[in-house]
Amino acid sequence: MRSRYSAFAVGDAAYLTATWHPDHRPDELDLADGKRWTRLEILDTGDGSPFHRTGTVTFRAAFRHRGEDYRFEEKSRFERVDGSWVYVDAEFVR
Questions:
Q1: What's the rounded Cα separation, in Å, for the pair 62 and 20?
Q2: Which domains does the chain show, CATH number per domain?
Q3: What is the mean pLDDT of residues 68-75?
Q4: What single string gives the DSSP state of each residue in 49-89?
């Protein structure tokens, strides 16, 4: 999760695409939206150990856009594909 947040922060679309589940990956990813990511706080994790095939990460992220500060909470689902964890989808908490 932290590596994907960092990829959003630096605009690394290739990394985000590579770590997205192939069945859920968008055709295009536009990171030139002017957001400046400012904070990531991990709130909770579920499963995700070496013995699990799936896991969740609940986090709060903050960003600045057009002079305004925003934050949101999300519960992301991950799945192990070919030995690597990939992002599947998410549910906004608030």
A1: 21
A2: 2-92 (3.10.450.50)
A3: 96
A4: STT-SEEEEEEEEEEEETTEEEEEEEEEEEEEETTEEEEEE
